[in-house]
Every structure is written in C-alpha cells, then in structure tokens.
Amino acid sequence: MPKLRGHHLICLHFYDGEGYDDGFIENLEGVLKRIAAEGVVAAEGPDDVCGPCPHRREELCTYSRTADREIREMDRKALALLRLSAGGKVDWARLRNTVETIFPEWYATHCYLCSWRSVCEKSDLFLEFRRRLKSSSSSPPGGEVG
Question: At what angle do helices 124-135 and 92-106 cross, to 10 degrees?
C-alpha cells in the first residue's frame, strides 16, 4: 500500500499532470494508480512521491532553507484536519470526501500562498471546491478567496 505524507493526502487530489520532471511525474502517476486500487497509508516525513524529487536529500526537503520544517508542520496540520495519524490507512475515494469538507480551512491556510497553487488551479476539482467557497456566504478564515 503506498504511503503519503500529510499534505500529499490533500494536495494530490488536485494533481493535473505536472511535476518537476518526467521521472517525477512517472513515479507520481504510478503512485496514484496504486492508491486508487489499494488505498493509502498516512506517513510522516518523505513518502512514495518524494523519492525522485530533485529537492530531497536523505530525509530532508531542501526546496528552500526553511522548507523541511514548513512542510513537516503542514503535514502535521493536514493529518489533524483529516483526523489521521501516521500509519493510518484510508480509501482514496473516501479521503476525497474528507478533503472536500476541510477544503475551506486548507485553502485559507495553505493554498493561498502555495508555490504550486497555479498548478492546482488547472484541476477541475480544485476549481469546483474554490467556486463553492466563493459562492458561500462568508470567506474562509485567514484569507480571501481569489
């Protein structure tokens, strides 16, 4: 069963074919196919997606000077929102329903300033969730819907 870190459990629902390079994309698509068939295990730290990432050094993300600390905190928050702990198993389709429920808070706290946001905005699912935010009576806490 594939393993995904906290924020990947949310963000990969919005995957739309882009990544760092062909090897990274090929690995990611293979992981997503397995997840659809087998389900997924929540992980702490680097997961099955991180393997071919050009920014991975051992167990650390070197995307920026503070990336590893920030990503681990984001993972912790994602697992809390999803009500999962490391080692927990979940069905991908059921997880999608949970992602829909927690999207307003996730968007307000993580998507709004994310460097991958422009990629997610190509996803029909992301756009649908964001459209629902815009049509709701109030903006999510901590950020505008834009």
Answer: 40
